[in-house]
Amino acid sequence: MNRSFAPLLALVLSAAPAAAAPLDPEACKVLNTEHDAMIGAGLKADMDRGPVWAKANLPEDRLKKIERLISVEEQLSFRCGQLVTASPQIKEPPKPPEEKAAAAGDKPAEEVFSGLGFGDLPAPKRKPKKTP
C-alpha cells in the first residue's frame, strides 16, 4: 500500500462507526417529511419501474432525485429505526419441519414439493423399496 494513503485510510475507517450513529428525533422528522414529499412527487413509482427503464426514460435531475430518495430511505431505516427500505414479504410464518411432515402424510411427492416455492422444479423420484 502506498504510504501516502495510509493516514487517509485510517481517517476514513475511524469515521465509519460515527457515521452510523442513530439520528435525533427531530432529524428523523425532517427526513420523514422529505420522504413523504418525494413519494408524493411520484419518485417511488419511477424507481419501481427499474434502473434500465429509468436510465432510458428519465432526465438526469429526476435520476438524482431518485438517488436522494434511496439515501433518505436508508437513513430512515438504519439511523431512525423505521422500516422503509424493505418490508417483509411473508404473509404467515413458515411451518416447522414436523408440521410439514405431518401435513404431507401420504401425499404424492409432487403435492408436497409444490407448496415449497421451488417453482417448476420436478419432485425428486424415489427409488422403489427392495423387499427381502
> Could you say which overall geometry the principal axes of the C-alpha atoms support?
elongated
How many DSSP-defined strands? 0
Mean pLDDT: 75
Distance between the termini: 69 Å
Radius of gyration: 25 Å
Low-confidence stretches: none
* Tally of alpha and pi helices: 7
Portion in beta strands = under 5%
The share of residues in helices is 55-70%
Major sheet characteristics: none
Topology order in helix (H) and strand (E) letters: HHHHHHH
Structural class: mainly alpha
List the helices and strands and how they pair.
Layout: H1 6-19, H2 25-40, H3 43-48, H4 51-57, H5 60-79, H6 97-104, H7 109-114
Helix pairs in contact: 2-5
In short:
This protein is mainly alpha-helical. Helices cover 58% and strands 0% of the residues.
Any overview of this molecule?
By secondary structure, this protein is mostly helical. It has a domain of 61 residues. 58% of the residues lie in helices and 0% in strands. The chain is built from seven helices and no strands. Helix 2 packs antiparallel against helix 5. It is elongated and about 75 Å long. The chain starts with 5 loop residues before the first helix and ends in an 18-residue tail after the last helix.
